[in-house]
Design a protein that fits this description.
The strands form 3 sheets. The chain has a 5-stranded mixed beta sheet. A 3-stranded antiparallel beta sheet has the order 2-1-5, with helices on one face. The chain contains 4 helices and 10 strands, in the order H-H-E-E-E-E-H-E-E-E-H-E-E-E. It has 186 residues and is an alpha+beta fold. The radius of gyration is 23 Å and the shape is elongated. It has 2 domains: 84 residues, Outer membrane lipoprotein wza fold like; 66 residues, wza like domain (wza like fold, 2-Layer Sandwich), CATH 3.30.1950.
Length: 186
């Protein structure tokens, strides 16, 4: 009889443990937080070409990951840092338009993040610097009544691969991330 009660308790413990998904250490995501920001579709960039006010403007990175500028046309931006894009623009301008171009690129508006699941208003929202999952939930109107409030699922592109991990709600997010707030069971 004692063995039966012990077995019953073990089965009950496994069932309850199965209700909460394991929270993975956010190592895969944390490593990507220390990498330089890579430009992608949806970013808006303030590009200043010193001494060339007609070329200086805010440019959007299109769906193909390019910006289109006067004189030099399309410039690939996807996967470059702002410094890499500066060098690419300088190279194109130097090849027949300006002698010593000096270019400055900064992110004017980051691409949005997405939040789904058990929040008041899921959808696409503007990214804010130093954002965590908790901040994202607040922007989305707060938790729904049945939301799991200790963890969420984050999907991010890391080294060209989509990575989806359950992480604590204090985990920082980046532009383009998709956050899914899961439903709690009890």
């Amino acid at each position: 009889m004692k063995r039966f009660k012990l077995l019953l308790a073990a089965v009950a413990a496994l069932q309850v443990a199965g209700c909460t998904p394991p929270i993975m250490p956010p190592d895969a995501l944390q490593a990507s937080l220390h990498e330089p920001y890579m430009l992608n579709a949806g970013d808006k960039l303030r590009i200043i070409i010193f001494g060339q006010d007609a070329l200086s403007n805010v440019y959007a990175v299109d769906g193909q990951g390019r910006i289109s500028m006067p004189l030099i046309g399309a410039v690939d931006a996807r996967g470059l840092t702002t410094q890499g894009l500066e060098r690419a623009i300088e190279g194109k301008l130097r090849a027949g338009f300006l002698r010593e171009p000096k270019v400055s690129v900064e992110v004017d508006t980051y691409r949005p993040f997405f939040i789904l699941g058990e929040v008041t208003t899921s959808g696409q929202y503007a990214f804010v610097n130093n954002m965590t999952i908790q901040t994202a939930v607040a922007i989305a109107g707060g938790y729904a009544p049945r939301a799991a409030r200790t963890y969420a699922e984050v999907t991010r592109v890391v080294n060209g691969d989509l990575v989806t991990v359950n992480v604590p709600v204090t985990t920082p997010i980046r532009p383009g991330d998709t956050v899914v707030v899961k439903e709690r069971y009890f």
